[in-house]
Amino acid sequence: MADPELAALQALQALSSAQGSTGGALETTDTLAVRARADFAEAWNHPLWKKFRTLAPEDRGYYVGGLGQWSVDGSTADAEALQNAGRPVLSFNHVQRFIDLLVGYEAQNRYDPHALPQGQDDPEDAETWSWLLKFYADQLELQDALADQFEDGLIEGCHGLQLGVEWDDPLHGTITKSLLHGGTEVLWDPYAKEYDLSDARYCIVFKHAFIPTLLAEYPDDAAAIQTALGQVSGAFETKETTVTLPTPDGYGSVRGHPILDTEVEKLFYDRGRRTVLVMEYWYQRLESEWVVVDYAASRVIEAQENAAGDPVPFTKATADAVAAADPTKLEAYERRVRVIDLAVILPATYHVLEEGNPHDNDRRAYPIVPFVARRKGDDMYGLVRNLKDPQRLENKRISQAMEILGKLASLRQWYEEGSVDARHLADAHSTAPIPVKRGMQPPGYLHPPIADLIAVLTNMGRLMEALMPQITGLNPSLIGYQEGGAESGIALARKIGQGQVISAGFFARARRTRKLVYQRLARRIQQVMTREEYVRLTNDLGEPVLVRVNPTEFRKLPEDQWKTRRAEMRAAQQPRVLRDLSKLKYDIALSDTPSTATVRDGLLLKLMDLLRSAPMLIEAAPVVLEILVELMADLPRRHEIIAQLKATTQPTLQAGAGGAPSPSGAPPLSLTGAGAQP
After folding, report:
1. If residue 319 lies in a helix (H) or strand (E), which one and from where to where?
2. Spatial CA neighbour of 367 closest among 522, 510, 583
3. Strands, E, within 92-143: which ranges?
4. Which of 124, 113, 106, 202 is nearest to 520 (CA)?
5. pLDDT tens across 326-384, in order?
6. Is residue 545 a contact partner of residue 131, using CB atoms and an 8 Å limit?
7. Using one digit for the tens of pLDDT, what is the confidence trace for 19-41?
8. Is 476 buried (19+), middle (13-18) or exposed (0-12) by CB count in 10 A?
């Protein structure tokens, strides 16, 4: 270990011992801070993230265009050398259209979240939950954030989105969202295999904080931070390789701390810019919990109710006591579950600023949801990665052709020596006659044989452009134009279908990301909505619905009494009620049909064509018309039209009117409305 860092660490240990373990204390080497620092170094130096940090900015440059499309291994030296020499440097951006095509498809095919009831839970509550999810998603502009995440993931390969809660108001938390660039703002365990990071050992969100701002945010720790930074200042300026202390920590998952090079350590503290790295270190640990297994009923009892009716988790003693009541059917069982915890850490000083997961109701999942376009081994990449070579080659060859034309395509005059006065040829645009000496050859023009060379270069550039649709699978038909003359509708449809199948993987992963994000959003809603309040939501028909959340007088009602009370409230047209939002269980799914207006309009046209082509549906036309109008979310004065249709097409039950009986034995349904012929 380098002497400056050894002295700094010894000073930190002495300072920590003097301050004890209360606020402002600095952690010693055998701590969570060492584990966080080691995990950061592991991820930062892993080939997965090293490649990504190098290639992702280059991929973004190819999407943006300009000099970025000349980059090789992160360097634009070729383009800069040509520019400095005054030679042509052209960029023909064909990469952007492929990304924009998929982004446009995603915008036209967005799915709304839906909450599904678990077991015997009330489907009406789940429906209201769906409206609540959409309300908060609109407040957060979550659809736009997910679209940005999808676009950046297609360009660079991966992108993260974090949902959190801020408590500026102690009574009402605010749900927040943050888009995180992979490699420069967030790192996760490079050995994780699951898409949702459920098997990741850690996930680190990091940023460089201005030291005065950090000290103002943590006033109790300000003196300790300043002292520690002064102690370690010299250590981060050393040029030698350093190693963290090899003491194993108490968490059991760090086998040995890796070697830290000075480049990684310099990320932790920049004295010149007065910044220090701050980590949100999210990590997993195992925790024991006790449950009671009821073999007779094939169920697991996870908690027991106290006198107030609130669930209380089992301890070993309480679980054993419950199981002892009927040992033949019940058994106490200990299970080890994974939980996620958080520590906010200054790795430069081994200082832990905060500890504890702020999301008490969501401790089984990381708050960061990734979108990974593609991952194969140690490579995460998007659509741009394999388009770079043909795009760069096209730019170079067309630029080279332009340079050759600029140099050689100008007509150069030649003449027999002594035949003319050269001053007469100096002005290429003059129309004055040129005197030629008798017996001499008159001036002519030199035509260099450059046509074949230019053809080779331009054809090579065009070949690279033609290869791009083949590489991506997004053929010209998807982009909106035809090549090689007119095509039949069937051939065109098959080409479009082929392109959609090839790109389906991107949309499948984007759909999975959306589902995970909405699961996190539902947990955040449960976390911030703990008090009684009224919320005005929008139902599936676009109508406003007033919902009362967490009313105290209904929380303890037995289920049968509650359903009776709710029916009375519905009959009296009182607001809907979610009795206890924090206890509502649900499954989050995405709608089967995209919710955008373009898709809805297309489906409506199909339904109307079906009505026109099927005579047996004519009788049902009034009812179907009402449904069609309800689906037209953008129709002006839609609610008035729906009300009028309901008044004139209200179906009635006609007992004994004849006809085939319904499967339930009820009289057949008559679709004759007011004013219709019986």
Report:
1. helix 316-324
2. 522
3. 113-117
4. 113
5. 888 899 999 888 999 999 999 988 889 999 999 988 999 999 999 999 999 999 999 89
6. yes
7. 443 344 444 444 889 899 999 99
8. middle
